[in-house]
Amino acid sequence: MPNLSAILGGSFEGRQGTQGAQGIQGLQGSQGLQGLQGNKGNDIVEGKLFNASETLLRVDGNSVNIVYGTQTSGNIGLCSNPTGDITLNVTEIPTDASFDNQVLTFSVVVTQTGTARTCTAINLNGVSKEIKWTGGSLKTAISGSTTNNGYDIFSFTGINTVGSASTTENYVVLGVVNGDFR
After folding, report:
1. Better-scored residue on pLDDT, 83 or 5
2. Sheet containing strand 103-113, strands side by side
């Protein structure tokens, strides 16, 4: 390239190049829920549950009657001094569209006092439900995991397999036993 200063006389300074387009800054993430206080001391910070507790329903006998969605009965029953098989009755489970596709969880803790007792029946809003036990049967589920003196925990999950909450007929109940706590 020829020397323009020598040809034309004088000095020339070239133009400074233009700066390229600057990248667009990405969207900044929105901040999660912060400092919300859940029911009964359940702390939710930034959308994360840090502490959780359940209300315990104490029962002396063979029937555990839980009223769904209330803080007075919770989802866990402690059954002391049972004289026979135990029935779990859960009432006031919502049956409107706002409760479609929901899963329910309940537990019965049995204080065994000499004869092992078992939670063998569940009624959801008055509808008797078959319990599908771990291993295929109650006998298999309790084999080697229950005690005559101590605590046994019967945990149940009700899965709405249809999606519609219009009736508790739509729930399948799964049961598992954790036991022999002394």
Report:
1. 83
2. 56-60, 76-80, 103-113, 149-160, 171-181, 131-133
